[in-house]
Design goal:
mainly beta, binds flavin mononucleotide, globular, Pnp Oxidase, Chain A, three-stranded antiparallel beta sheet
């Protein structure tokens, strides 16, 4: 497969592809679930995106190698908490392999029973609407059952690092 970078046709290189994708600035979220067997879980993601206003749909994608692939693709309800600029440490914490237990000091319970991050910039309570294959990820579409948001400064992920709009 070939791609065009800086006007030059080149063979696709995974590292270059990742670097180019990193040019797209995103927010950072914690996707959460209260699993009947494992308890409350949280995972850092930046693949969150809006999909539809009517019906209200959002999506995120999970890498197929995740320890919790089955939990997130099979759950009935999940949550998405958007991080503020001063919550970068939480992003790092919940991105650690084996470090996804949602600690009670960080969360309260959302309207669909999912963990809801304290002091999040926004939170969406979702019901799983569809799961689609997406290469080495699964794309999870959620119907938003409830949401809340506050004024604040978002945590931004860009070029492989954390940034702030401030
Ligand atoms: C800023 C950031 C964004 C991430 N976005 C995603 C994502 O969209 N989807 C995903 O599956 N993992 C994402 N990850 C990785 C997960 O947080 C976590 O590290 C990974 O799932 C570890 O595998 P595990 O689930 O087996 O513990 C992201 C990590 C960081 C730091």
């Amino acid at each position: 497969m070939a791609s065009i970078a800086e006007g030059v046709l080149m063979t696709m290189n995974t590292g270059d592809f990742r670097q180019a994708l990193g040019q797209f600035a995103t927010g950072v979220c914690l996707v959460t679930v209260d699993d009947p067997e494992l308890g409350p879980l949280a995972t850092t993601v930046n693949s969150f995106s809006s999909v539809s206003l009517d019906p209200p749909l959002v999506l995120w994608s999970i890498q197929s190698t995740s320890d919790h692939l089955g939990v997130y693709t099979g759950c009935v309800h999940f949550g998405i908490s958007v991080l503020t600029a001063d919550q970068a440490a939480l992003s790092g914490h919940y991105a650690e392999r084996g470090g996804h237990n949602a600690l009670s000091e960080h969360f309260i319970t959302g309207s669909a029973g999912e963990p809801k991050l304290i002091d999040a910039l926004a939170h969406f309570s979702c019901a799983t609407h569809a799961v689609h294959p997406g290469g080495d990820h699964q794309i999870i579409v959620g119907e938003v059952l409830g949401f809340e948001s506050v004024e604040g400064t978002p945590l931004v992920f860009y070029g492989g690092g954390y940034r702030s709009l401030a």
